[in-house]
Design brief:
Helix content is 27%, strand content 25%. The protein contains six helices and eleven strands.
Amino acid sequence: MAEILAVIPAMVDDELSNRNLREIKGRSLVEIAIRQATNSELITNIVLNSNSERILAEAEGYDVITYDRPDRFAQRDRFMEMDRLLMWQIEQLKADNHDIDVVVLLYPTSPLRTIEIIDKTIEKVVDEDYDSALTLYEDTRYLWKKDGVKVTPVNYDPQKRAPSQLEDWNQWVENKAVYAVEETTLLQMGSRLGNNIGSVEMPQYRSFDIRTQVDFELVRFIAEVDGVSW
């Protein structure tokens, strides 16, 4: 059976104070991610890595491997930071005799993904001919670019405007909910996304990546209204 490893990265940062430890329905975002990975039918091992002992303590009571994150991966201004962290994590696990086939990245800041979505994304790599996969949502907005005081449309012609849902340019947005990648692709390319990428669609209202207090309040409201449980 393939070893499918879920990696949950959760550093302390100042983007939103203690955001990975903020609670929704009595569970921290880190614990929610752990429970989602635990309840997946395909994930075989789970790793939580962090630069915080308080965050690592969230794994207590679960079958989760914990790693202290090196200081060099505690910044936000480095090129391909998360991909390099994943590669470091795989190297540590291989040194501990883990033979990993697929790596699944689950950010704690995307708690509204479902177990079904996690497993569908993994299946794109395990059962279909993709070396990696990610979750997306459809976006039908008219986009503009601003250069100084000048603004120009990016994806449509204002003189040939059609209803947005009828346009042929509707784009798909990477929502950071689930990534899956072959271990060999990750190590060879240095990227969580390879050359043959599959995708799984998610509804936009479940595609929040919590970065602000407004994001957090909206996710908490959706979880209550939609009856989300973990």
